[in-house]
Structure formats: structure tokens, C-alpha cells
């Protein structure tokens, strides 16, 4: 936690400050101190994008960024000594960072958010890994889920500026990029808050009130909601759009020369690196204003310049800009085609439940999940929305009266961009547009309170500001309780497996989870989540109710299984043992790794078991028929045995009436954000030590008791449907034992109100090693009759 949320942000800001000083030196004029780190981050974005465009230069990205940062410090030591932080800007930035850190820090897991709500994080992590090592070259990537991601995104000119900037800093803290992904986004939003503070500096005279305005606007309800989904591109867009407007005004305030435009040029190119040409509607008006004003101010000076000198300076400037922006220029056509088709897909909801309503741009929507309507306290909600709307109108009129160029330029540019894009966008794309615009809207809403304060009604102004800020914080507090926190321990085990078996793939991973592509990238992972649409050769067909459920080895055809040298399987007493030619190579807390061996050769695989039980008793006639085929092939019969299992099935015992059942899973329940207890019993046939397993995907802490004694209280264990988790071990005597699983609900922890939690069967299995495989001659096949078996195979 300390490395991710303290050390990494400090390293990031130190590098950005050095790079900002380098840009300031190149521009030849003193940037506002509040903008140095933001401008420095813009330079990191530009450099990282350029360097990762080619495989030859990609490995040198971090060294070059370090050189630029050190050059900035070395050339500006007097400037560094004279820097003094603006206290209220610092308070606003740290406040925003603290709010963003809360879901992670309060969970106790230094991880990332949005897990199984929006798994786009898997794409970002995979791109960062590859681009910082190999650039856009995919020639050496074997067929795998990694290749599927890279082909789907690099070939479509997906914008990667904000992602590769993180990749450039990552080696400095020696952390997997996954664990610093969320603090990086939080840092970007904090820098955006400081940029907003600078933007309204000449308008809001009260510094505490200014800090409250930007603190609130920077965590507008939709912004915070997208932060909880780790939507890096869109959130970085809010920062870079604000920074562009501030830099346009700051540049115009000074003397205009080709050199003085360098900082604005860096920021502009960074904006396009962050969102490609999709950023154009957002920064087009501020940049157009700059060009018009700059041209008007420079008209007389340009006339005095010799024509040759003017041509050379213009050509040099255009050449540098073209070189820096070359990744955007070369990919423009491809990106526009893809972006236009995505933007205008009118039926596309993405991970939304329904199109968002425009009211949500006011920053107040206390539903717990921005995708759902407000049910509770809707009268208070709409009263707050009405007040916010009135305050926004008052704030806009006050800005016009004050001729506040900065906020008005931000509002005009973002407002026109939002109106244009929302008129064409699909519901999914439109939601992103609303999120980007909502920061500006909430800023104007808060400026209504400033306007009231400015008229002399200070108490009323502060009261209105507190009321509006309270509405936003209320919205985000409810969203915080629905945060989807990724399970670091389980994902770290995946990473260790990838490292241990590096280069020994291809590997099959049986939990449909896009994040496995990142953590298992060294073993060429194949995940059905990235397989072609159904029908998929070798994979059993699935419908919409179980398309993302865990894959059992028995569901895979023998030809499909044998494609893989490794099988990485979620440890589960419900899962079948892999075929006889796979031997256990690693057993962790959450996963088993099975390695394919040269012998025996599997000729035919007959799976047994169904439903909750992985074993069943085969008919003797079936065994005899299989033995006859084995004799004909001069082969033998292999069979897998399993220890008996006792279980408690939530859907078959006493449980809360309001807990729903899971579509497609007859054994699991949905807690529905309400407290309750599942009570039942299970019978074990022999005394001994038993491993306790629980199927489920949940964030809130569960309390599991056997015979009135608490065995474990697991939490933050989100995962694929059908995921089984180790809970603990307990000694039990033969007989019936009472079992309860309690979900207390409530509390201050993040994730307790997550909507997609499930609780499945609890299973008691005798402690044992890997499931043994026996071999029998076909002549003695009758010995298998009447036995509970996992499967029978013909092997040679």
C-alpha cells in the first residue's frame, strides 16, 4: 500500500516536475507553478507515445524520460529553490487524491477498481506491457489471448498516450503496472484539480472557496463513477482538456514568439495522444481562439520579419510539430473510421443498463451505481438537482458579467463539443461524453455559489456551496460502497504462475477473465473470453446465462485440450481432473497448474459426473463397451477417483426470502445488498480434517460458521461465475454439522453494496493430495463397475 499510494505518486510527481521544468526552459518563459507538473506529465505522454511507436526505441522510453526530468532540474535549480506551493491548491489536489484513494486504502488491498464491472483495464495493462517492450511490433507474439488483444487495439490505432506514460514511470518503482494503475489515475485527477484551481484564479478571490469549487468539480458524480471503473482515457481527457484551456490563456498573456508556444504545443500533442482525433471537438475551440488571437497580435511583427526568415521559422515549427505528432498523423484515417463506427452505434449500451439521463451531468445522482435510476430519496435528489441547475444558470450569468475568459472558454469549448457528440453518439459513447463534460458543469454549478458570495451574501454563498458539495459527496459515498475491488492475492498468484512457467505455454486458463491475459502473458494464455464467437471448435456451446462461467476440463474436447502444454485451473472440488497425460506441476492457494506429459497417449475420454458432483457411478454396460474398444486398440483403461464431498447448497436450505437466484446457476444466490444468513447442515461420513471451499463472487465480508464456531470471514473475492475459493480447514467428526453463512451488510467498507455479488455452495472435502489416476487392463474392467469415478479413458 505504501509503495502504490505514497512512493509511486511521489516518484511520478517528481519526474513530472523535472519534465515540466524542461518544457519551461524550452519555452523561455515562466509557467505558473501550479501547472509545472501537469505540463511535465504532458511531455511524458508525448515522449512515451513517440518512443513506443517503434520496437527499436521502445525499451529506451524510461531512460529518455529520466534524462529529460534530470535536465529540467539541472537547468532550473534556482527556479526549483524558489518554488513555493500554493497552500489551497495543494489542499484541493491532496483532497481529490484522498477521495480517489479511499476505496483502495479502506479495502486494505493495494489493487485496482472496476473488476468485472468493466474489464477494459485488462486491455490497458496488456498494451502497456507490450508497447514499452516491443512497440507496435507484434511479430514475436504467439497465438494467444495476448495477441488477440494487441491485434484488436493496436491495429485500430487505439489511443495509448495516458497508458504508455504510466509504463514509462513504472520501472522506477519496480511494481507490476496493475498495482499502480489506480493511483496513477488518481494523480491525474489531482493534477486536473490543480489546473482548475489555476483556471479560476482570477475569478474566485476567496482561496478556500476556490479550493472547495475545484475539489467538488473534480469528483463530479460521473467522474467518480468512471474512476471506480478505472476508465483511464476518459479521465485523462478531463485533465488534458482543462490544461489546454489554461495553457492557451497563459500563453496569450505573455509575449508571443515561436519559442513561447512550445509548452502549449506539447500539451496539445499530448491531448491528441491521450484520445487521438476524438479529442479535437474538446480542444478545437480553445485552440482556434489561440490561433486567431495570436495571429491578430502577431500581424505587425510578422510584417517586419524578412520573408526568408519567416519561411524558415514556419517550416521548422511545422516540421517539429509534424515529427512529434507523427503517431497521430499516420493513424488518423484508421482511427477515424473505427471511432466513427463506435460512436454512432445507436444500440450500443456497453456495460450500461439503459442510456443515462442528462441530469447526471450536474454531478448529483445518489443511486449507488450511476447506471441505475435513483430510487431512495428521489425527492431530495431532484430538489438538489433543481438547485444545482439554478446555481449553474446564475454562475454562467455571473461569468459573463465578469468576462471571465478562462471558465467561459472551458464552458463554451466543452459545451459545444458535448452538444455535437451527444447528438450523434450511442448511449455508451454518450455516457463518456457526459462524464467529460460533467466536470465543467459542476464547476459552473459551484461558481453559482461563488457568485452569491461575490454579491456580499457570504454566509448564503458558503451555505449553497456546502449544500452542492454535500450532494456530490453523498453521490460518491454511495458509489464508494459499490466499488468493485480486484482480489490482489489471487491475481498475484496468477502473476507468480506466469513467471514460474514463463515460455512453457501455451496455457489454457479456465476462468473467463480478461485480466488473466496480463498476468499470464509469459505463458501465451488462451482464455475462452477471447475465443471467437460460438460455435467454437473444442468448446461446448453456451448461452447468454452461462457464457462467462468457469470451464470444466470435461467440457473441452480432447483435441482442444491437447493443444495446451499447461492447464491453469481454479482449484475446486467441483472440477474434474484433467486427462491422464497431465500431471500436477504446481499447487497454490487458488490454482493448480497441470503440465502435459509424453505418456500416456489418451485415445478416448469419457467424462462422468454432473451438476454439483464431479463424480458418478458408470453403468457396467458402458464400462464393458469402453473396455472392448480398448482391447481392439491394444490399450488400457485409466480412471480418476475423487474423495467424497459434503456440501451446503444455498438454494436448498433456509435463506432470506429477498435473496435472488442466479440465472443459469441452480446452486447460487444473489444477496441483493441486504443482510441475511444462510442456515443448513452437511453430513460427513468419516472423522478427519476437511478443507472448506466456497463458490462465490463477493466483496462484503462473509462470516462462515460450522457448529457455531466461525471458520473464516473472507472478503474482496470477486471473480468469474463458478469461481471456488479456499476458506480454511477444520477437523470434523463423522455425522451432521450445522453450517451458516452470514452477510451482515452495511458498514463503512468499500464494495459492500456491489450489485453483482453471489454466494454459492459450501463444500467440505477430506484433505488430500492431487486426485490419483489408476490404470486397469480391459480384461479387469468389471472392477470399475459400481465405483464413483471422475472419468474413464482409453490410454496407450
User: What is the CA–CA distance across the termini?
Assistant: 52 Å
Overall body shape: globular
How many separate helices?
A: 24
Major sheet details = 5 strands, mixed
The fraction of residues in strands falls at 5-15%
* Strand element count: 19
Which structural category do the helix and sheet elements fall into?
alpha+beta
Let me know the average pLDDT. 89
Strand order of the largest sheet: 2-1-3-5-4
Low-pLDDT sequence parts? none
3D structure, described in words:
With 796 residues, the protein is of the alpha+beta class. The protein folds into two domains: 479 residues, no CATH class; 121 residues, Galactose-binding domain-like (Jelly Rolls). 48% of the residues lie in helices and 14% in strands. It has 24 helices and 19 strands. Helix 22 links the parallel strand 1 and strand 2. Helix 11 packs parallel to helix 20. The two termini are 52 Å apart.
Which features characterize this protein?
Jelly Rolls, 796 residues, alpha+beta
Produce a short descriptive summary.
The chain is α+β, with helices and mostly antiparallel strands. It contains 24 helices and 19 strands.
Compile the SSE list and pairings.
Layout: H1 2-27, H2 36-51, H3 61-75, H4 77-82, H5 87-107, H6 121-134, H7 145-153, H8 161-169, H9 177-199, H10 207-217, H11 221-228, H12 232-253, H13 262-275, H14 280-304, H15 307-324, H16 326-343, H17 378-402, H18 405-422, H19 427-454, H20 458-480, H21 488-500, E1 507-509, H22 515-519, E2 525-526, H23 558-561, E3 566-570, E4 582-587, E5 591-596, E6 602-607, H24 620-632, E7 636-641, E8 646-648, E9 660-662, E10 665-670, E11 676-684, E12 688-697, E13 703-706, E14 709-712, E15 724-732, E16 735-743, E17 758-766, E18 773-776, E19 789-795
Amino acid at each position: 500500500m505504501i509503495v502504490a499510494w505514497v512512493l509511486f505518486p511521489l516518484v511520478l510527481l517528481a519526474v513530472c516536475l523535472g519534465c515540466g521544468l524542461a518544457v519551461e526552459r524550452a519555452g523561455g518563459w515562466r509557467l505558473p507553478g501550479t501547472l509545472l507538473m501537469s505540463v511535465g506529465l504532458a511531455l511524458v505522454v508525448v515522449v512515451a507515445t513517440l518512443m513506443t511507436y517503434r520496437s527499436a526505441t521502445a525499451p529506451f522510453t524510461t531512460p529518455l524520460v529520466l534524462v529529460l526530468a534530470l535536465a529540467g532540474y539541472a537547468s532550473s535549480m534556482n527556479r526549483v529553490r524558489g518554488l513555493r506551493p500554493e497552500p489551497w491548491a495543494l489542499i484541493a489536489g491532496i483532497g481529490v487524491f484522498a477521495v480517489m484513494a479511499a476505496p483502495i486504502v479502506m479495502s486494505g488491498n493495494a489493487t485496482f477498481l472496476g473488476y468485472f464491472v468493466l474489464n477494459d483495464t485488462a486491455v490497458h495493462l496488456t498494451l502497456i506491457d507490450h508497447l514499452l517492450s516491443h512497440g507496435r511490433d507484434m511479430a514475436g507474439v504467439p497465438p494467444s489471448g495476448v495477441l488477440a488483444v494487441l491485434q484488436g487495439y493496436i491495429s485500430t490505432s487505439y489511443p495509448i498516450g495516458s497508458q504508455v506514460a504510466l509504463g514509462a514511470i513504472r520501472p522506477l518503482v519496480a511494481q507490476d503496472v496493475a498495482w499502480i494503475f489506480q493511483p496513477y489515475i488518481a494523480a491525474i485527477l489531482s493534477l486536473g484539480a490543480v489546473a482548475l484551481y489555476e483556471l479560476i484564479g482570477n475569478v474566485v478571490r476567496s482561496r478556500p472557496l476556490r479550493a472547495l469549487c475545484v475539489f467538488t468539480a473534480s469528483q463530479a458524480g460521473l467522474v467518480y463513477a468512471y474512476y471506480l471503473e478505472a476508465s483511464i482515457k476518459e479521465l485523462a481527457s478531463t485533465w488534458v482538456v482543462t490544461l489546454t484551456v489554461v495553457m492557451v490563456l497563459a500563453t496569450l498573456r505573455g509575449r508571443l514568439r515561436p519559442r513561447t508556444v512550445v509548452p502549449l504545443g506539447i500539451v496539445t500533442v499530448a491531448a491528441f495522444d491521450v484520445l487521438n482525433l476524438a479529442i479535437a471537438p474538446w480542444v478545437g475551440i480553445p485552440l482556434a481562439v489561440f490561433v486567431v488571437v495570436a495571429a491578430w497580435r502577431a500581424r505587425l511583427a510578422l510584417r517586419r520579419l524578412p520573408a526568408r526568415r519567416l519561411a524558415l521559422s514556419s517550416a521548422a515549427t511545422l516540421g517539429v510539430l509534424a515529427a512529434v505528432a507523427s503517431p497521430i498523423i499516420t493513424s488518423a484515417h484508421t482511427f477515424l473510421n473505427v471511432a466513427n463506427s463506435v460512436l454512432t452505434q445507436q444500440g450500443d449500451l456497453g456495460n450500461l443498463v439503459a442510456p443515462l439521463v442528462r441530469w447526471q451531468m450536474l454531478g448529483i445522482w445518489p443511486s449507488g451505481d450511476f447506471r441505475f435510476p435513483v430510487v431512495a430519496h428521489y425527492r431530495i435528489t431532484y430538489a438538489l438537482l433543481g438547485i444545482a441547475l439554478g446555481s449553474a444558470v446564475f454562475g454562467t450569468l455571473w461569468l459573463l458579467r465578469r468576462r471571465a475568459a478562462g471558465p467561459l472558454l472551458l464552458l463554451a469549448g466543452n459545451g459545444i463539443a458535448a452538444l455535437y457528440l451527444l447528438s450523434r453518439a450511442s448511449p455508451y459513447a454518450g455516457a463518456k461524453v457526459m462524464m467529460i463534460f460533467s466536470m465543467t458543469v459542476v464547476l459552473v454549478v459551484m461558481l453559482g455559489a461563488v457568485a452569491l458570495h461575490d454579491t456580499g451574501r457570504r454566509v448564503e454563498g458558503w451555505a449553497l456551496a456546502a449544500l452542492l458539495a454535500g450532494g456530490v459527496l453523498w453521490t460518491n459515498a454511495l458509489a464508494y460502497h459499490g466499488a468493485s475491488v480486484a482480489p490482489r492475492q489471487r491475481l498475484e498468484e496468477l502473476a507468480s504462475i506466469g513467471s514460474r512457467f514463463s515460455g512453457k505455454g501455451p496455457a489454457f486458463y479456465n476462468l473467463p477473465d480478461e485480466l488473466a491475459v496480463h498476468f499470464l502473458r509469459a505463458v501465451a494464455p488462451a482464455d475462452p473470453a477471447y475465443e471467437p464467437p460460438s460455435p467454437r471448435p473444442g468448446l461446448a456451446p453456451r448461452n447468454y446465462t452461462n457464457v462467462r462461467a468457469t470451464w470444466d476440463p470435461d467440457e473441452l474436447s480432447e483435441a482442444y485440450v491437447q493443444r495446451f502444454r499447461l492447464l491453469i485451473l481454479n482449484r475446486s472440488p467441483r472440477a474434474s481432473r484433467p486427462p491422464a497425460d497431465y500431471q500436477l506441476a504446481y499447487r497454490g492457494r487458488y490454482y493448480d497448474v497441470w503440465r502435459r506429459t509424453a505418456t500416456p497417449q489418451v485415445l478416448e475420454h469419457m467424462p462422468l459426473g454432473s451438476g454439483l458432483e464431479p463424480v458418478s457411478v458408470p453403468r457396467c454396460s458402458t464400462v464393458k463397451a469402453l473396455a472392448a474398444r480398448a482391447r481392439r486398440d491394444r490399450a488400457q483403461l485409466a480412471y480418476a477417483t475423487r474423495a467424497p464431498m459434503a456440501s451446503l447448497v444455498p438454494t436448498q436450505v433456509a435463506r432470506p426470502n429477498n435473496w435472488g437466484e442466479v440465472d443459469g446457476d441452480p446452486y447460487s444466490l444473489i444477496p441483493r445488498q441486504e443482510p441475511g444468513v444462510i442456515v443448513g447442515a452437511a453430513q460427513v461420513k468419516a472423522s478427519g480434517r476437511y478443507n472448506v471451499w466456497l463458490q462465490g463472487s463477493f466483496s462484503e465480508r462473509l462470516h462462515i460458521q460450522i457448529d457455531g464456531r466461525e471458520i473464516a470471514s473472507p472478503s474482496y473475492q470477486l471473480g468469474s461465475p463458478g469461481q471456488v475459493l479456499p476458506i480454511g480447514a477444520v477437523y470434523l467428526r463423522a455425522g451432521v454439522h450445522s453450517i451458516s453463512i452470514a452477510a451482515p451488510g452495511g458498514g463503512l467498507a468499500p464494495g459492500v453494496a456491489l450489485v453483482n455479488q453471489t454466494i454459492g455452495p459450501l463444500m467440505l472435502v477430506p484433505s488430500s493430495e492431487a486426485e490419483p489416476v489408476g490404470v486397469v487392463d480391459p480384461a479387469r474392467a468389471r472392477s470399475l463397475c459400481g465405483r464413483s469415478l471422475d472419468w474413464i479413458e482409453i490410454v496407450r
